[in-house]
Amino acid sequence: MTRPIPHPANAIVARRICERLRMAIAVAGLVLIRQTRGLWFGSAEVFPQVPLVSWGLESPAWLDAVFAWLMVGSLGTLLFCFRRDRVARIASLTFAGALAGAVLLDQQRLQPWAWEFAILLLVMALLPARQAVVGLRWVVASIYLHSGLSKSDVTFLETYGENLLWVIQGSFGWDLAEAPVMVRRGLVALLPLGEIGVAIGLCIPRTRQFAKWGAIGMHVCLLWILGPWGLDHQPGVLIWNAYFIVQNGILFSRFPKSEALDSPVTGSTVESPRWRISLGYLLVAIIGLLPFLEPFGLFDHWPAWAVYASRPERTLVYVAEDRLPDLPPEVREFLSEGETPPDEAERFLAGKPAWRRLRIDRWSLAATKAPAYPQDRFQLGVALALARDYQLGEAIRVDILSPADRWTGQRTHRVLEGQKAIRETAENYRLNALPR
């Protein structure tokens, strides 16, 4: 007869889960900060910085380093003191506060992994272990839910999802080139449907273990698809996916009774005050609900877990060909020859210099080892920084493509030509879009 497996409501089991998760976050966070150090310790001279709020425009450069070192120090403290509740709570709050300060100075720092780590650490800092485990499970389930919903549109089926399918078919030696379009789209749709199914399964005790292994299998597949054997993405993407495997193994596993009851308990066991528990529950609820505002333009894509999504708006930056010599080599190498605006023929007939597209995404990856923040206000800020630093004047253009229609994939197209037009548009955003 098998021994019963305790539910995580058991306080000691819950403490073990929280301790191990803190350690996993600390290790992954330190590795990711090291991998993307240009984002945290670099200056606006390396890659343009666009503060989240206007007061960050005049902030001193040393303040960025202060926030970055606070993040590193707090994660280092968690790594060695993950079993000491009070120390871990202070370190967790410090990390979240330092990240908030860093994001206020440059919104590109709101990377999905940093956002997730801050949320998980805050939940564990506010709630007692038993309630924290429940809250953490709901947060992780909501990540899969909103990630799946963000890909549930025709644009994903036709673009990024199709790219993932080609990597898979190449690995297995399949030939889907002649397959009906609906068959290919059906195969691509398995990814968002799988994420939504995992989210639902993780919320139901009877299906939780199946959903856990489904999620782990999905991340293993993503490591294979996005790694050097497939699309060859940056190491940061692979590290975050590997972290999810460890995270899910810790958070959703059933611990043996012997480990739960026989292991000594260290650290403080002081009861949490009511206000802290209420705040923790409120945080879990807000994190689960806010992403529903993203399709309406009221919440940013990455905090809403819209990663690998194709539907968000696109911002295309062009520079006039006759001004290319004015740009430094580290910028010129990301100018694409084959990508021109739709009205390029009219410009040619008028005798004006051709436009060359600047690939901001590739520039960001090279300079900071991190992807560019996908919001159009951020990319407008990058274009403004370029125009300001190299006096481009009318020799710069930005095309803003609206979010794609979920069912048709159609987008509206808006053209901003010249530094003045770009700045006037940037000043109309609710949040800051001007560069430091």
Describe it for me?
This protein folds into 2 domains: 286 residues; 113 residues, no CATH class. It starts with 10 loop residues before the first helix and ends in a 10-residue tail after the last helix. It is built from 18 helices and 5 strands. It has 436 residues and is mostly helical. It has a 5-stranded antiparallel beta sheet.
Distance between the termini: 67 Å
Q: Which radius of gyration do the C-alpha atoms yield?
A: 23 Å
What order do the helices and strands follow? HHHHHHHHHHHHHEHEHEHHEEH
Helical residues, percent:
55-70%
Could you tell me the number of beta strands? 5
Q: Structurally, how many domains make up the residues?
A: 2
Which structural class do the helices and strands define? mainly alpha
Q: Indicate the low-confidence ranges by residue numbers.
A: 1-6, 258-270
Shape: globular
- Arrangement of strands in the largest sheet: 2-3-1-4-5
How does the major sheet shape up?
5 strands, antiparallel
Overall mean pLDDT stands at: 90
Q: List the total number of helices.
A: 18
User: How much of the sequence is in beta strands?
Assistant: 5-15%
Question: How would the blueprint of this fold be written?
Answer:
Blueprint: H1 11-35, H2 37-41, H3 61-80, H4 85-105, H5 112-126, H6 129-150, H7 154-158, H8 160-172, H9 181-203, H10 208-226, H11 235-251, H12 257-262, H13 274-289, E1 314-320, H14 329-332, E2 335-336, H15 344-349, E3 355-358, H16 360-368, H17 376-389, E4 396-401, E5 413-417, H18 419-426
Antiparallel strand pairs: 1-3, 1-4, 2-3, 4-5
